[in-house]
Queue: 3 jobs
Job 1
Amino acid sequence: MNNQTFYSGKVVWITGASSGIGEALARRLGGWNTKLILSSNEPDELQRVKASLPLNADQVLVIPLDLGDPVSLTHAAATALGAFGRIDILINNGGISQRSLVMETSMETIRKIMEIDFFSGVILTKSVLPGMVARSEGYIVSVSSITGKFGFPLRSAYSAAKHAMVGFYESLGTEYYDQGIRTTLVFPGRVRTNISLGALGPDGKPQGVMDKGQESGITPERCALDILNGVRKNKSEVLSGGKELTMVYIKRFFPSLAFRLNRKIRRT
């Protein structure tokens, strides 16, 4: 079965759909006769993405939301479920990163990152899961990070949130596998998106700087295709990136070496 056949007719909800990987996912899925729900906290950008898709207006719904506001998420989930009668695939892609040392990072910032990167996806997942279980079919896709595989300097809260995602969605996948629910965890490496621009610095505000590593990363389009291929093939994990993915395997087989390599990272 190819991607066109697999995704055709499916209702897909994407968070973080106004740019980067989320926008690339929407564009790819838009060519496969899907029904899309696009969400982020940038309504104008969501409308731009919607207008760029080769789908009829009634096949794409824009639902702005704030991943840091549980009330916003509850309302968004109700709207999404009512729009097309079901959600076949939920892609928890939206999130925020960090660039600050542990002692520089306030508890307010740590809680904000956990709320956006971890708890928001849990809320949306719990909202759509009952309907999926009732139909005995559904896909929960969650975009973690290679820092969800190992800790990394200046990203303590971000890495913690991404590790938490792994524990939650792996557990969910085992609990509901026999009821037709499939989970895919995505671990991107360096992807050319704006995530480092919006990363929270020591003052809790976006740093507004593009990381050098990010600039040399793979395209969002390549990452999106890796994700969608992985979901179709029922992969529990998808790694997407360049040579930096080697660290995942170093961590797995040589954890002490991985720790020493990460210690050598300096703030730039």
Note: Strands lie at 11-15, 35-39, 60-62, 89-92, 138-143, 181-188, 237-240.
Job 2
Amino acid sequence: MTLWLFVARRLAVLVPTLFVVSVLIFSLQQLLPGDAAIALAGEEQDAAVVAAIRAKYHLDRPLVVQYGLWIGNVLRGDFGQSLRNRIPVGELLLSKLPVTAELAVCSMLIALVIGVPAGIVSAARKGTPIDVTANLVALSGLSVPHFWLGIMLILLFAVRLGWLPASGYVPPWENLRLNLTTILLPSFVLGTGVAGVMMRHTRSAMLETLSADYVRTARAKSVPEWLVVTKHALRNALIPVITLGAIEFGRLLSGAVLTEQIFAIPGFGKLLVDGVFNRDYAVVQGVVLVSATLFVLLNLLADVLYFLANPRLRG
């Protein structure tokens, strides 16, 4: 099977998946309590004003018509206008996406630096105190709630030690040093959770690979153990880790709601929370749809990387 045929088959599944996702996004939002038109009308809630708002934003039309109008605009690149501040949703998404992307990249780097080496060492030293310690650390990363860890880190590094700011965000093009100080704590909070997942999967894949026949043959030929682990085992063990990494990166790009709220990071997560509280339909729909699209595309990328890394799929 060629790469292009493989990608074409995945795209044939991707398009209907995104269609179903868009329907779910639009439908589930209608279950939110309250009325957006009444909320926008203010305290007086004049009937004529409410009716005018419903007509302006097509809230008085049947749901099928509303969905058709919305998805038609989305396909043309128009996500609508924020009901709260009258700013085009596309502009809001473009302004928040770099923030969330930076947070996701930094978090993923921390996860890879911690998780993959820990998984390799844990598998190579199975049953030793190093293996037990690595598993305990990974389990802690998976079990500790992000909001609690974020608050504890703020109390330690911002309040007690004063080394890092407690919250806020500075773009890298304005001040790179301040940008790194503001992004470090939230990246560590998210990265440790992903690192636990990466460590466990890397360890499982390495243990399976280290028990393979070709690894036993390499050891029988007196190949140094470090070479057996790094050259013979690691190369094949990282194939499933690649897929996991792409999925976890997509999850990070979807916006870490609690972490962004705790550290006041103006990314997708905070934009989504503000949109829900303000009943800003267009913003919520835009954030969730873009996040879902990025997640699906990264899954496609993971499949492509897996295809390239695994020769058996090309047979």
Note: The mean pLDDT is 81.
Job 3
Amino acid sequence: MQRWHRIVALAGAALAFTAQAADVTVVGIFPNKAVVQIDGGSLRTLAVGQKTAEGITLLSVDRDSATFDIEGSRATLGLGQARISRTEPAVQSVRLTADLQGHFRTDGQINGRTVAFTVDTGATLIALPVGEAGRLGIDYQRGQKVGMRTANGVTGGYLVKLDTVSLGNVTLHGVDAVVIEGGLTFPLLGMSFLNRMDMKREGDVMTLTRRY
């Protein structure tokens, strides 16, 4: 019967493998078992064939290493070595093309419902006409009442926070907006969304890439 086991102190060198959001460090090796630390948490002992809540399965163990399936990727991790393999998150970006008047108009979504936006870097917030807010099911009258200066003069508005705003594969959460009672006929994609993007314009094409 095999009686071998090997353990390395956490302060020493151990092999770490990063896949997606899971960091796995092998701390000890025993027959058919491995002691691991996942994402800096407490030590746990896995048996061959056991799968963790993080999607990590111990496949096999030998004298010097343990082999895992980590979120669909096979990795053999040994003691006394160090290795980091990091998967970068997918870039969230969208490309817009100007119309004949030079305006950037695009379909997006607010709280999962389609909206036809006009990009407006001069607007501090996303701005919505009252009718559009009603169509989207936004209870704007519970928001803070403010006075808004528009091209047609001063009008009333309500400050609201939108759960989600999406453009292409870009989705932001908790975006400030204002619902304007008069003087606005179409939704404006203002700086409360655009400030969280890197904006790059090349001719008639604008690329928005999410920063945070």
Note: The two ends are 54 Å apart (CA to CA).
